[in-house]
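Action item from last meeting closed. Structure (350 res):
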């Protein structure tokens, strides 16, 4: 947590009136304290403390286009699966009224627990057995998420499963080209390869699209229970192996080159975590899903993360954000494109 970054402040009077009108506070003049969560790179997340209550507010980043920062999607998905998938925060209210904050936003409960960023992992000095438990709990939650009956939850119109893989390849390629700030030869090779080597038959389920250690909240340091899965902004109906591929893209290993560990920092790089290949084996066993075209899914995951990094850097490059964390994300995007092309050439994910 930190004080609110300059330029990312909330409109106090308008927001307090909104909270009062929604019955979340009893006095629109109440004193409050606002802090900002620091680990996210996309949507902005704030902790509101007032009247002995704590609420979390989520809004798009300043200067961002609506696509990819759909607050209504996040709110809708979490609201509808709340009764069947207990690992989401309780949703309180959502609004598209831009007279309040200048953008859509929603309010949810604050979930207590541990978000395992790389900084948190270092501070806790976790051992190999800890990480074995962490990885197993993380993966069990992932498999459970993919098994959610989305029709029963009322999410059958969330996405269009048919043609999902093809659309993803096309759309992420377009988004990369739109946000490109320099020439990265590997990016063009990866886009061409994915277009020519994508699977044409696949299953579909509810997918999260950003499932990694620092997007879940562990109940406590026994690491055996997840109380919440966070950041549902890209959730949809699609191929669950695309979801797995993205998670593998984030899954930095202790055996990866130092430049990779620095460019994609993750607690998964500590000893005790399974390798990427072991994650695939465990997912196959736990989910019962057969995995073919693994290199495609891994390369796509790396490329998608590259696009996300490049889009954030593009906003920084254009002066739409001053967050210093974003200043080298173009290098991360280049690294990820190179890793994707390397996987394609070697046909290996480790």
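Sequence:
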């Amino acid at each position: 947590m930190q004080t609110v970054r300059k330029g990312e402040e909330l409109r106090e009077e308008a927001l307090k009136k909104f909270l009062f009108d929604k019955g979340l506070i009893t006095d629109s003049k109440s004193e409050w304290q606002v802090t900002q969560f620091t680990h996210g790179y996309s949507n902005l997340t704030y902790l509101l403390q007032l009247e002995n209550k704590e609420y979390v507010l989520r809004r798009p980043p300043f200067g961002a286009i609506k696509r990819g920062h759909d607050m209504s999607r996040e709110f809708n998905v979490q609201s509808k699966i709340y009764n069947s998938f207990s690992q989401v925060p309780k949703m309180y209210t959502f609004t598209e009224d831009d007279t309040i904050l200048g953008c859509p936003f929603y309010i949810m409960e604050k979930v207590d627990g541990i978000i395992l960023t790389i900084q948190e992992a270092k501070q806790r000095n976790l051992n190999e057995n800890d990480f074995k438990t962490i990885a197993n709990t993380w993966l069990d939650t992932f498999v459970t998420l993919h098994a959610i009956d989305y029709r029963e939850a009322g999410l059958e119109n969330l996405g269009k499963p048919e043609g999902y893989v093809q659309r993803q390849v096309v759309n992420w390629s377009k988004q990369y080209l739109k946000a490109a700030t320099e020439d990265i030869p590997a990016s063009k090779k990866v886009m061409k390869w994915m277009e020519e080597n994508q699977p044409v038959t696949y299953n579909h389920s509810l997918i999260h699209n950003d499932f990694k250690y620092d997007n879940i909240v562990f109940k406590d340091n026994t690491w055996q229970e997840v109380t919440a899965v966070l950041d549902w902004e890209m959730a949809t109906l699609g191929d669950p192996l695309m979801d797995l591929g993205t998670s593998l893209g984030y899954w930095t290993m202790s055996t990866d080159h130092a430049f990779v560990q620095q460019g994609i920092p993750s607690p998964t790089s500590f000893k005790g975590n399974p390798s990427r290949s072991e994650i695939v084996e465990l997912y196959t066993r736990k989910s019962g899903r057969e995995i073919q075209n693994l290199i495609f899914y891994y390369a796509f995951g790396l490329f998608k993360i590259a696009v996300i990094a490049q889009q954030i850097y593009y906003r920084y490059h254009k002066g739409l954000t001053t967050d210093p964390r974003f200043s080298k994300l173009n290098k991360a995007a280049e690294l990820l494109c190179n890793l994707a092309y390397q996987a394609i050439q070697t046909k290996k994910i480790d």
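Note appended to the action item: The chain has a mean pLDDT of 94.
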